[in-house]
Amino acid sequence: DQTHFGFKQVATEQKVSMVADVFHSVAAKYDVMNDLMSMGIHRLWKRFTIDCSGVRTGHTILDLAGGTGDLAAKFSKLVGPSGKVILADINNAMLKVGRDKLRNKGIVGNLEYVQANAEMLPFPDNTFDIITIAFGLRNVTDKDKALASMYRVLKPGGRLLVLEFSKPQNELLTKAYDMYSFHLLPKMGQLVANDSESYQYLAESIRMHPDQETLKSMMESAGFEQTSYHNLTGGIVAMHRGFKF
Ligand code: SAM
Fold first, then answer.
1. Which atom belonging to ligand 1 lies closest to the Cα atom of 117?
2. ipTM of the assembly?
3. CATH architecture of 12-243
4. Cα 15 to averaged position of ligand 1 atoms, centre (Å)
């Protein structure tokens, strides 16, 4: 009952371990694949997220499902020595690649690495000024539980930014994108990372992820206010934002 296209039918524990396997197997090649698959555009999507974050010197920030630390690295510079950034990820291998990369770049001091599941964040209530989750929420099994957990650890006045694949806004783009992700992407994964299945999982997980309006109402159900989203690259990606008051 465990088909490539059947992630929905797979039991929860199985899904958790499959996600773990996927990210264990792609960790080493993750950054190069990101650049290749998005033709470098993921950097612009991340830049936009930082620009919408309202980050200030001294802020405490959680980069959840932070993986190899692109956002955490930028935040670490922006919050300065009086601020703090926590890079949290469920997966050891991704955290290790991230930690090694940032240390090699000399980004140290105000950064901490925590292995954590987004559904059960191991932090006190009202801890963070900003929480980001970039290309992470679609991998989380119980998204409502994860959003509630993020809401709990966010400070009143704080904001959540969710950067995630979403629903392309016109038909032509949808067709081109389907071709790309179902045909080309697994081939690229095979060539570069010797792993087509993980990249097939990626394409499938994108299709199953809630669209713009659905995610917005999920955020509202978790308690977030003044929620909004901004489509990027024609809605291939969307950046959702919500506040806790
Ligand atoms: N945020 C990084 C970026 O934008 O480059 C990494 C994104 S990567 C596609 C997704 C990450 O989500 C992986 O590192 C994976 O281990 C992590 N992840 C998956 N499920 C998670 C969960 N339940 N809690 C925390 N992290 C999770």
1. 24
2. 0.99
3. 3-Layer(aba) Sandwich (3.40)
4. 14
84-89: strand order across its sheet: 111-115, 84-89, 60-64, 128-134, 154-165, 237-243, 225-232
Amino acid at position 59, single letter? H
Q: Which residues contact 183 (CB under 8 A, 6 or more apart)?
A: none
Contact yes or no for 174/89 (Cβ under 8 A)? no
User: How many C-beta atoms surround the C-beta of residue 213 within 10 A?
Assistant: 11
Ligand 1 site, residue 137, Cβ cutoff 6 A? no
Output the six-digit token pair for 201: 């999982």
- Among 111, 57, 59, 55, smallest CA distance to 87 is for 111
Task: Please indicate whether residue 140, judged by its CB atom, sits closer than 6 Å to ligand 1.
Answer: yes
User: Which residue from 88, 121, 96 is spatially nearest to 24, judged by alpha carbons?
Assistant: 96
CA angle (71 as vertex; 69, 72 as ends), nearest 5: 60
Mean pLDDT of the chain: 90
What are the pLDDT digits (tens) for 141-164?
A: 999 999 999 999 999 999 999 999
Proportion of the chain above pLDDT 90, given as a percent:
70
Ligand 1 contacts CB of residue 65 (under 6 A): yes
Query: Per the structure block, which two tokens stand in for 89?
Result: 């990820």
Give the atom of ligand 1 at the shortest distance from the alpha carbon of 141.
23
Domain edges within the chain = 12-243
